[in-house]
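Here is one chain, start to finish.
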Amino acid sequence: MMVSSSINTFTTNYCSCKPIPTSPIRRIHVRPSLDNAIEVSNGISYCSSPIQKKRSLIDHHSLSFTKHHFQILKSLSPGQYGKTYVVRSKLNQQIYCMKIQSKRLLKMHSDRVSFDVEQAILSLQHPCLPRLYCSFEDDTDHYLVMDYFSGGDLFSLLDRQPTLCLTEKQAQFYMAEMILACQALHQLGYLHRDIKPQNILLDHLGHVKLVDFGSSILISQATKNKQSTPVGTCDYVSPEILDSFQGDATYGTEVDCWSLGICLYEMLQELPPFYSDVSENDTYRKILFHQGQVSFNDMLPISDQAKDLINNLLTKRENRLTLDQIKMHSFFDGIDWDTIYQSKPPFRPRLHSDDDTSNFFIPQDILQEAKQDDNPDDDDDDYISLSQPITPPLSPLLKHTCYIPSSLEQ
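Its structure:
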């Protein structure tokens, strides 16, 4: 009783945002993020259309861009620190995604989100990641203009399935491309720290693109410097990141491998393995004390190979498979890792135009609110977010008591 009371007191005192009601319908279980930078799709949806792939890019390095170089076409998912739009460049008439982030809010939460890190990653121009077209700023906001991916996200793809799941063959494909994208990010020197279906986008052919790098961090920094701020999203965060709230945690690529395991489980079993309809705190408890907690739904049977891979990802960090070990697992028998991006995806998005947003799922009530606030010139920071922030209790949720920082005590 004391544990529950302390945790609830902590969450109430620490989190300034009101919770979002969750729907009993599976795919609308919008869950709070651990850091204020996260949105359900982080408001980002990127992807090159067939027309965009043929475009002749303008030499944007020689130009000084402003928001007036772009025509706002459609609003996408609003985020905790800003808004995202489908836009058309007035210079080359191509479609892009424009992410606008409030400088004031970014400064307030600089321990949780970094515009500079996201900009740096997008600037690397890796084929598994969105391409940055340009970035600029004004007195109140930062702007990122990047590829718009009209194929939707993995979350929306799952939502459209009759069973709300994928077959193992389909999951094998998406998981394989997610692994390659994650491996590419690690090779560039960064951890993602918020891999989830909403951050796995699909291009016009249906291939995977990894997005949303606001919570990313240099691997060298995460492994050498003790981390004190949990980031990520409730159902997908690793126990190592939750432990960072104690202020003495370091971690590495294993945190992204954990999140990949959560995604695979969700693709095959409908819900994340530690999901709780009781509270987010109950999910945190399950994650922190995850040993022996992973169970499988007999109504959604999966192979022993799939179970073995999941169990070897959702385990202690010292036993967790690395990305190279994952690629060698029997679950991926038959996958040609060298040619998968030339293969045919299980689903090809149906697109009616370059600026089509129909492949993204956004709850109607939130979408209506977003449409009422669809002016990027507004100076207010009263953004609507599909995924509100919450900071979990310290990992010594200790089975006995929960430490509450003195600054938060009543």
